[in-house]
């Protein structure tokens, strides 16, 4: 049994290593609750979801018939918008003078984004120095996926569906390279969308090749998209701001007041103070550690993390009245794939965390029993975005057991039973029952009418990618 202290980077802990001395049985201590990534809203490196003790292996009496995997991109640099905000704060720091106390590290601090061209990009060994390179983690996940599911795709051309976001495609590409290893080959020899995805062998190891199906993020794609939110004209990007604004943010003033004891002329807005939590997250992606992560107390991380959860829930999750509608095209396509008998047993699609959240919320997998509160932090937290949407993936299995078909969800390496449907083997949900539950949800929404959407009204690329060319140019977002 490997102890937590050996497998968890100490720089991720909100407590010192002396925590082991503060429990009656140090050899049985767990520090998982103190992992700072749990409180950074999904912007920091990958973290395994907290599970229920259910093995990710399927029973010996069962066989996997199909697997669907939806993944966001891997660890990345800040967006261009966040970069502008960070640089504004950085200028204030640089113009301040000599810092004292907790902020004294700023006297010699070097900004973690060394080239503005890195904004929006995936982290890699070439542009970052930490242990959490997004490309490397995508490759590792591909290797892991191959070890579990290689019998489902051996000897065929395997389609890999990705939005034309540069970092989503790059994640798909490195995942595919890990998936096939030295046998990697793609169907056109140079990746897709103008990306440099060449290399690999000549189709050895069963002859499996990768075909990249690159779906445009443009609203013109309508429902035939991995980012259908862009076609939903009625979707408000800043929905429920009144609810979100009602959350108690006095902790931000407390932080600023604490810093001003040693640095009385420090002039930061509360929004700028809040942005330093995000700074901490992205610097972890790039460097593996961040002095900004040391500036806040455990309570402040918890309060900030829950504020992120409120934003996610009320703008993207079920707190937004259009969330089920926006995610419905992808959910309906998943249902159709699960009910079909197809030669393709492995379905891989790469998009953004926002689109994953719409998809899983629309399906009903991640929804709390009632709206989450905005007047206090609930314990336990029913909607932790950092655990639900970290970098990388979720799987859906279609499993055959003793003459019956079931489905199982694995979210970030932990089994998550489908709500209200877990009476099958190993807490799986009977496929016909799952289809009935989700179809009922879908019957109550209309993507075209509720979104005022134009363009295609259904997702079809899973079925027509061989006849229609999906090769959108990559974009920097």
TrEMBL record:
A GO cellular component annotated for this chain's UniProt record is: fungal-type cell wall
Identification of the protein by name: Uncharacterized protein
* Taxonomy, superkingdom: Eukaryota
Task: For this UniProt record, give its keywords in alphabetical order, as a comma-separated list.
Answer: Disulfide bond, Glycoprotein, Hydrolase
Q: Spell out the InterPro entries in the cross-references.
A: Acid_Pase_AS, His_Pase_clade-2, His_PPase_superfam, Histidine_acid_Pase_euk
Q: Where is the active site?
A: 73, 353
What's an example of a GO molecular-function annotation for this chain? Answer: acid phosphatase activity
Which family is it part of?
A: Belongs to the histidine acid phosphatase family.
> What PANTHER family does UniProt report for this protein, alphabetically?
ACID PHOSPHATASE PHO11-RELATED (PTHR20963:SF18), MULTIPLE INOSITOL POLYPHOSPHATE PHOSPHATASE-RELATED (PTHR20963)
SUPFAM superfamilies the record matches: Phosphoglycerate mutase-like (SSF53254)
Q: Name one Pfam family in it.
A: His_Phos_2
Query: Gene3D superfamilies, from UniProt?
Result: Phosphoglycerate mutase-like (3.40.50.1240)
Q: Which cysteines are joined by disulfide bonds?
A: 62-401, 280-293, 421-429
Claim: Glycoprotein is one of the keywords in the record: yes
